[in-house]
Amino acid sequence: MSSYDALAASYDALTVDVEYRRRADYLTRQFHRSALPVETVLDLACGTGTMACLLAERGYRMIAVDGSEEMLTQAAWKAAALEQPPMFLHQSMPRLHLGMEVDAAISTLDALNYLTRTADLRETLRRVYRWLRPGGLFLFDVNTPYKLRRMDGQVYLDETEDSYCVWRTFYAPGRKICTYQVDLFRLNANGSWDRAFEEHRERAWGREELETYLTEAGFGAVTVTGDLTSRPPAAEEDRWIFRCQKPVRPR
Fold first, then answer.
1. In the prediction, which pLDDT does 9 show?
2. Are 195 and 177 in contact (CB under 8 A)?
3. Low-confidence ranges of the chain (pLDDT < 50)
4. Are 1 and 198 in contact (CB under 8 A)?
5. Ramachandran bin of 186, using left for φ above 0, alpha for ψ from -120 to 50, beta for the remaining angles
6. 12-43 tens-digit pLDDT
7. Which domains are present in the chain?
8. How far is residue 227's CA from residue 221's CA, in Å, rounded to a whole number?
9. Nearest to 41 by CA among 20, 61, 12, 26
10. What are phi and psi for residue 124, nearest 5 degrees?
11. How deeply is 222 buried, as exposed, middle or buried, from its count of CB atoms within 10 A (0-12, 13-18, 19+)?
12. pLDDT digit string (tens) for 197-220?
């Protein structure tokens, strides 16, 4: 089972606190500042497609990719009523293949932390670079090492009328891996409950590591800020946002 397969049907209800519109506003401002006019956008690891749909509503032609078929099913239902729905593709990040170039690429809500192997991260960055037009932007966020270390030993509860989710988190400092053990209980029509279990892992990538791999992939103009701001990251920052560009004249 892929990460989020069991959670897919309940994911949106369990993440109502995520400020998707605020993040879409931030991304739109970044697109407007791009030297290359942004019309076509890749959403890498799009999940249930909320961000892709919000940007599609604003007139962007969206290509949305995810490794979970169940999450993409939810995304397709969500997008069905849109005048210009995103194109959804079932692909893992390291095997990204679009067949066309895009003006910008995004990856939100710590998707790249799920790439726990260095080889997979580097290959993903190379492939994003490959499918960006010269001058195109790549914007992504990650959970910081500071945040993932603090999650060690924590228990989180999410509850709706028909679902109950328990997240237990453990951090392994030697491997820099935060493991989420997820128990999901869903209410059936007959009053019984189904239980599903998933295990998720996120890698605590350092800022210098990410900057190095972006440069190796060919990106330039790499900047890092705090979450949804233009200021440099604070020492105790939960989320970094990376903004980089494929050079107009790629090497």
1. 85
2. no
3. 1
4. yes
5. beta
6. 888 888 999 999 999 999 999 999 999 999 99
7. 8-143+206-245 (3.40.50.150), 147-203 (2.20.25.110)
8. 18
9. 61
10. -60, -45
11. middle
12. 999 999 999 999 999 999 999 999
pLDDT at 1: 43
Tokens of 49: 């497609």
Tell me the two tokens of residue 96: 């990204």
Q: What does the alpha-carbon distance between residue 184 and residue 165 come to, in Å, rounded to a whole number?
A: 5
Predicted local confidence at residue 153, as pLDDT: 97
The residue to which tokens 């993040």 are assigned: 23
CA atoms of 30 and 58, how far apart (whole Å): 14
Exposed / middle / buried, residue 194 (Cβ in 10 Å: 0-12, 13-18, 19+): exposed
Is-contact 181 193, C-beta < 8 A? no
